[in-house]
Amino acid sequence: MAAAWDDMATVGRVARAHGNHGEVIVDPETDFPEERYKPGSVVFIARNDAIEPLTITSARFHRGRPIIGVEGVDTMTAAEALAGPSCGSKQRRCSRSRRARFISTI
């Protein structure tokens, strides 16, 4: 496996395909969606008993949800196959104020 799922922070869930160019809508579960979902970032999904990296090629936001393009996914059918799993990130922390606390640290 590329990385242990339990060591990752959950940063969202792939909700569904968007359009016919292989983009997906993500339901973010992070306070830092602009940092997590930007071109060049990598998130992971767990499916078929494996952890798969998804490299983000494009990102825009609509009504607070990221719509992302993923490397190697360029059809609606391929995007639909991504729907459902949670997205994880190896980077457990993002930049934040010194006084902010994560639920996992309380």
Q: Termini separation (Å)?
A: 30 Å
- Helicity range: under 10%
Globally, the shape reads globular
Mean of residue pLDDT?
Answer: 83
Would you identify the regions where 5 or more consecutive residues have pLDDT less than 50? 101-106
Radius of gyration, in Å, reads 14 Å
| Main beta-sheet strand count, sense and barrel state | 6 strands, antiparallel, barrel
Tell me the name of the CATH class.
Answer: Mainly Beta
Proportion of residues in extended strands:
35-45%
Structural class: mainly beta
What is the CATH superfamily?
RimM
User: What is the helix tally?
Assistant: 2
| Helix-strand pattern | EEHEEEHE
Describe the structure.
By secondary structure, the chain is mostly beta strands. The protein has one domain: RimM (Elongation Factor Tu (Ef-tu), domain 3, Beta Barrel). 8% of the residues lie in helices and 42% in strands. It is built from 2 helices and 6 strands; from the N terminus they run E-E-H-E-E-E-H-E. It has a 6-stranded antiparallel barrel. The radius of gyration is 14 Å and the shape is globular.
Q: Which features would summarize this protein structure in a list?
A:
about 110 residues, mainly beta, Elongation Factor Tu (Ef-tu), domain 3, 6-stranded antiparallel barrel, 2 helices, about 10% helix, globular, disordered C terminus
Describe the SSE topology.
Elements: E1 9-18, E2 23-28, H1 33-36, E3 42-47, E4 50-62, E5 65-70, H2 76-80, E6 86-89
Antiparallel strand pairs: 1-2, 1-6, 2-5, 3-4, 3-6, 4-5
Write a brief caption for the model:
The chain is mainly β.
